[in-house]
Hints:
The complex is a heterodimer.
Chain A: H1 5-27, H2 30-46, H3 57-76, H4 79-86, H5 99-103, H6 114-121, H7 124-133, H8 136-147, H9 152-159, H10 163-187
Chain B: H1 8-19, H2 25-37, H3 39-56, H4 65-77
Helix pairs in contact in B: 1-2, 1-3, 2-3
Amino acid sequence: MGLSKEAFENQVMDLLGRLHGVARRLTGNEADAEDLVAETVTKAWRCLNTLASEDAFKAWIFRILNNTFISDLRRASARPRLESIESEDESEDEAMFSIFEQMHQPFLLWFSTPEQEFVDKLLREDLDKALGSLPDHYRVVVILSDLEEFSYSEIAETLAIPVGTVRSRLARARSALQKVLWAQAQEYGLKGSPKQGCHGSTTDAP
Amino acid sequence: MTEKEIDCEQALKQILEYVDHELEDGNQAAMEHHLHTCQSCFSRMEFERRLKDKVGALREEKVSSNVTNRIKGLLDSF
């Protein structure tokens, strides 16, 4: 693919916010995110001949970013952590948690749609904190699915795990994320809504 | 052709795959039919979709001038 240096630079700079945003969530800290983006851009430039077309640039460079992160993690991690990324842990058969089910209590029905308002009122920093608190193998599938909009088969290919594992891991990861968000909401002191003053609620939800 | 029908239990099992656009055509149609007729499952689907969108919005981030300068410097070095 004969992409000019100028076109490469423009593509990278146009995508920098998104590359950095994803890198920040993958690595969990600013310094590693910067290094990951820099390493990704360097690798992308060196293997520019593997880019099929300019239209494929975004998917191509994000694939390099993911693969670089996962390779770095494999290199840096102790083996148990590596296994947690690549294989399903059978011991994680925990009960699924749903904020929707928590908020759909009969005595909360006087709210119109409390669970939708819960989501609408969530702050970016709350979500960021909750996502960052998840273990690597959960955080990575949520990032690949929700931030990078990868299909299950693309996630499976990236992580070298079966599609069925992607499906079950995503369900568990989202359950874990909701559990953290719910705990945060309770820390704020409201049980039917995440922020003081959202509904003016002082309900005694469980 | 008669559309496949699913109940709430089956719908809930597939709701994340629906939100992720991962259901096959037949299951997708059955899910859409169910969602048109069941307010509770529709609300659950809407909740999951909104949460997914909200998490997805973390992808965009304002980049600091330090990061921009570092990457610009890197590009100049190629």
